[in-house]
Amino acid sequence: MQKIILTVFLLGLVSCSGLKKAALGPAGSLIYDASNDLLHEDDWQFFEESLISNIKLIETLLSQDPNNEELKVTLIKALSAKAFAIDETYYLEHKLKDTENSIHKKRAKIAYTKALKYSASLFKSRGLSESLLTDYVAKPDELKNVISENFDDDSELDIEFVFFTGQSLASIVNLSRENFKVVAYLPVAKALFDWACEKRPNINGGACDIFSASYMAARPRMLGGNPEKGREMFEKAISERSDNYLVREAMVENYQILVADDVGYRRIKNDFGDLKQKLKDSKVWTGEKLRAPEKNSLNVFNMIALKRMEIIEANEDDIF
Q: Which pLDDT band holds residue 10 (cuts at 50, 70, 90)?
């Protein structure tokens, strides 16, 4: 962080655009490499406030070097994270209560739209059509071939770009079910997910498993969905990723609520007892022996899961 602050300070002293871009090259790489550090955060307020302020900082830096792909991908990741982790979490209560015109739903859609616009910009900088996703809306299988030809499956940057573009697209589709023009993009989102998840199955703490299970559980049978198969996929993912509680919460939200599985919900609800106490104990010192902070890349996923489960628990009598 000190290096980032120093870089920003130096940029303020430089007036020549060429020198700015020369300085932003390594800064973009540094910021991209450090972007996953936020996964270690376990304090909701700090996470929310820092993520939003970081987005504005990255947008400002990108305005000085519009073709910087590392800044662009970092921004796509950050916008997708803001929409999913913050806006959709707050929207969950409105969704459960069938609240119309939810401001949180609107904010999530705005953030996902911004992410997709930056994705279009990156497609264009790679010599592809900026409307690539639209061009292949009727032929998503061919899109995977185009992605393979133009993106490096050994590049973390390229894989994360495709993954978070897919996540942004799939999420805005999920929030726009009344708009059939948007819903038509779901196979495109799946093609992007499939490509990225084939290259890095463990990307983003198990998000590939969550997407695949949710895709199977929540879709109607006439569209290829299968709730029971989705349940099996969730249970397998929970077994393999027992430390990531977001998988459990996703099963509640995308399967158990839909099929009114009260028994399964109660079982998962009990699993969150230890996590709640653990996160609480880790944040406030109570006089025990002091230790250096331990970094856990699952912290933010577990924090989101706990926040959402608290919302579900508060409304469980009306749900089940």
A: very low
